[in-house]
Q: What sequence folds into this?
């Protein structure tokens, strides 16, 4: 005897409701409060007043901007984003680098928080990391483990509270920014494992002297900033060896101690200006996360290092200045044009324009006058012929 199983119609709406709920969850790949692009893999949730991580983030996102919010704790909340390459958590309320960040990250931006220290486990497993920005925090010490962060190339620790240069920094670093701290010394051997370091920013600290040979193992050094430090120039015994090294190194040095020269080496001096603000200008370490295509104005690595005279003088010049010859307009960071003679405007251009305009008008007048003469003579001829015809017909 066959038994027929009948499904109750009341279960159908329940199943349909569950299917719709799961379907909405799957389709909501971009949180409503954020903006997404590039197939919802670039997510911008910056400046949204967020206190918690938004829901419905797609698991295969590549770029996540959570900057300028009120986030306090992100521990273990981002570890499942296995394809995440760039994470911007700057300017939040974080007191430590989040635990459990994805190991696939290339770029971590965590500036402008309240981070006081970086423990060894915070970066121990980030083998793919290339850029780390921890500027504008409250850092007093960082701990790196040997042979970790092997791909890290740029480290920004500016605007913190360091008293000494960190040791055990990753050996493949190309750029290190330690400006605007409270640095007093560089321990012997701290820089010996950085043969690829090319740009080293130490300006705006509290150095008065440095030990002999502290930079001697930096074989790849190209740029070093030492300005705005209280160098003890009267202590010749401790300062002379550094001055001697500066004369021998091929690296460019900005802000030479003891005001011997504003810059050491003429390769980076401005060629068309009499003032040297451009010599203190370098591009920032990081780009704007929210505007990838935007070209940031030319500025110092840290804003405080730009020459005060440059900041004051830029505003005095108009945005566009006419010069006496081509090629004398120089683009500056304020968005305007600066010339070598900003106060004397040449009159040759305007005079030339007036002369050319006169030359252009005169031929037109001549041509119009000749046309009028030709027309008058033609009309006179016709009238003469008509008169002759009338006379002949009258006869």
A:
């Amino acid at each position: 005897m066959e038994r027929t199983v009948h499904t109750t119609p009341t279960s159908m709406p329940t199943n349909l409701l569950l299917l719709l709920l799961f379907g909405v969850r799957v389709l909501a790949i971009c949180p409503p409060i954020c903006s997404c692009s590039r197939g919802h893999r670039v997510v911008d949730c910056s400046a949204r007043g967020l206190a918690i991580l938004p829901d419905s983030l797609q698991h295969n996102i590549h770029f996540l901007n959570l900057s300028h919010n009120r986030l306090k704790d992100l521990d273990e909340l981002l570890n499942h984003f296995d394809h995440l390459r760039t994470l911007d958590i700057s300017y939040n309320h974080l007191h430590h680098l989040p635990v459990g960040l994805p190991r696939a990250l290339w770029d971590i931006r965590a500036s402008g928080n309240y981070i006081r220290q970086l423990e060894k486990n915070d970066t121990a497993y980030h083998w793919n990391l290339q850029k780390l920005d921890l500027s504008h925090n409250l850092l007093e010490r960082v701990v790196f483990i040997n042979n970790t962060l092997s791909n890290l190339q740029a480290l920004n620790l500016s605007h913190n509270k360091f008293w000494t240069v960190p040791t055990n920094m990753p050996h493949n670093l190309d750029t290190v920014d330690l400006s605007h701290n409270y640095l007093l010394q560089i321990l012997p051997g701290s820089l010996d494992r950085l043969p690829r370091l090319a740009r080293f920013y130490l300006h705006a600290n509290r150095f008065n002297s440095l030990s002999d040979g502290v930079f001697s193992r930096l074989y790849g050094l190209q740029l070093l900033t030492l300005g705005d430090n209280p160098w003890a120039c009267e202590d010749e015994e401790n300062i002379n060896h550094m001055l001697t090294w500066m004369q021998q190194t091929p690296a460019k040095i900005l802000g030479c101690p003891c005001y011997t020269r504003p810059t050491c080496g003429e390769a980076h001096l401005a060629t068309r200006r009499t003032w040297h603000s451009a010599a203190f200008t370098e591009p920032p370490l990081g780009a704007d996360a929210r505007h990838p295509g935007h070209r940031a104005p030319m500025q110092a690595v840290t804003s405080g290092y730009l020459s005060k005279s440059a900041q004051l003088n830029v505003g005095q010049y108009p945005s566009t200045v006419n010069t006496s010859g081509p090629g004398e307009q120089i683009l500056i960071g304020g968005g305007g044009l600066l010339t070598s003679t900003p106060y004397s405007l040449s009159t040759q251009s305007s005079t030339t324009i007036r002369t050319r305009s006169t030359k252009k008008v005169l031929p037109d007048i001549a041509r119009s006058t000749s046309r009028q003469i030709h027309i008058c003579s033609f009309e006179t001829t016709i009238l003469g012929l008509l008169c002759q015809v009338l006379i002949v017909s009258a006869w």
User: Anything to note?
Assistant: Residues 306 and 312 are 11 Å apart (CA to CA). The radius of gyration is 35 Å.
